[in-house]
Amino acid sequence: MSDGDEQQSLSQSIKGRLQEGVQNSVFKDKGLLDPDTVIDEDRIVGRDQQLDDIITYLRPALQGNRPPNMLLYGPSGTGKSLIINAVCQQVQELANAQGDRFGVIRVNCQTIKSHDRAVYRLVESAAIGVGVDPGVPESGVSTDQKLNRFYEILSENFDSVIIILDEVDLLVGRQRDPNDEPAYSKLLYQLSRASQLGRIEGDVSVAALTNDPRFMENLDGRAESSFNPQDIVFPDYDANQLQAILGRRRDAYRDNVLEDGIIPLSSAYAAQDHGDARKAIDLFRKAGEIADRQGEDRVREEHVRGAQKEAERDRTLTQMQGLSTQKKLSLYATAIVPVYSQRNLNAVPSTVAYRVYQYITDILDTDEKSRDSYLRYMSEAETYNFVTSDKRGRGYGSGVHKEYTFVDDPEVVAETLQSDIRLEEIENDEDLIRSVVNAQIDDFFDGK
Ligand SMILES: Nc1ncnc2c1ncn2[C@@H]1O[C@H](COP(=O)(O)OP(=O)(O)OP(=O)(O)O)[C@@H](O)[C@H]1O
């Protein structure tokens, strides 16, 4: 066969396999179950009170008046972003139809590290929305200059604007002292004052979204009085409401591929976990992904249970990232033993793991804790269900040692821990560590 033939058959085989995946999928329109998809209003279930309230508050925007500021609060996945965005979209359409310039500026505060960055993100978001240059650089100019540019863009382009600050409570900023005003407090003060003082020509109001029911308690007094929002509460969903939400997205799947119990089971799991619609939708989608992966043409309850297990595992890994450095190092040293071992090793002897731990602390030039501390950290890892342990004798007179077995894949555990900043430093020493691990294993099993 010539190179050209081989090339063609490879590309045909890739195409064939890709098409097979599409044709055999249980999904018809998987995008409907994407957490970031903006769904049509006819798929929104319930939340009538919240919709009514927000419509009432935003109506003035269509009458040439300033809407009040709003605070939307409730646990994650209870529809805060969905509902405010749905109403804003309708206001925008009506405003356009009557020739008013209504703008919506959205910023998610989750990853914003400082007040200055938040102001820049507002400039950027406003500039992109109206298609102009931000006009200020990200760094090298004062926050006030950025703020002024933001007001300028708003004044030039809008009669009325809603600024949506999602996850506003996470915009804490760099507080040198715990008594320092959090960044969100300063920002809310500035935005609401600017509007009241006429520093922006149009009407501006802020909708702040948060999971924290005590958010207002953390605002500085002057921020609290100038922001002064209308509250809109989003309570947890119960299992029935979640079932209705999933029911309206059933057509994400092909006809007749869903077993009867899929929607109730996904909803029941999510209802146990504080009634989070995002979680219900994730489980509903992941169950189908598992069915696809296994090449099955129906989604069964077992797939939902598998999806729930995967979600739990992801959560465990997230939890692990919150451990102190010494606990991470202990767990990491233990996890890489089976990962690097040339033998088929399921249970990790504590003696081996502790020596690997000592070696790693040495490379990192960090504190080396005693063997007792290592064992204590590992028993904590056991209560978190990262590992299970067993005591084993090594024959007469050799004493007893502990062995650890990982509940999840030790490779995933090691990778998760390695992505921690300090552990990344040892990536270059991988070969060396691998040989140390194997030397310790050999010593343990073959030594006297
Ligand atoms: N009443 C509802 N009807 C239909 N879908 C809903 C409803 N409530 C929430 N959802 C869906 O659940 C997911 C999460 O909703 P949303 O992002 O609005 O929650 P949130 O309260 O803003 O969460 P967070 O606080 O985590 O940002 C989205 O995919 C959304 O489409």
TrEMBL record:
Q: Does the keyword Transferase apply?
A: no
* Pfam families associated with the record: AAA, Cdc6_lid, WHD_Cdc6
CDD domains under this entry? AAA
Name the GO terms of the biological process aspect: cell division; DNA replication
Which Gene3D superfamilies does this one have?
Answer: 1.10.8.60, P-loop containing nucleotide triphosphate hydrolases, Winged helix-like DNA-binding domain superfamily/Winged helix DNA-binding domain
Q: What are the record keywords, sorted?
A: ATP-binding, Cell cycle, Cell division, DNA replication, Nucleotide-binding
InterPro entries associated with the record: AAA+_ATPase, ATPase_AAA_core, Cdc6_C, Cdc6_lid, ORC1/CDC6, Orc1/Cdc6_arc, P-loop_NTPase, WH-like_DNA-bd_sf
Q: Name one GO molecular function term.
A: ATP binding
In this protein, which residues make up the domain named AAA+ ATPase? 66-238
Amino acids binding ATP: 78-82, 237, 249
Task: Note the superkingdom of the native organism.
Answer: Archaea
Report the SMART domains cross-referenced here.
AAA
Biological role:
Involved in regulation of DNA replication.
Family listed: Belongs to the CDC6/cdc18 family.
Report what the protein is called.
ORC1-type DNA replication protein
Q: To which species is this protein native? A: Natrinema limicola JCM 13563
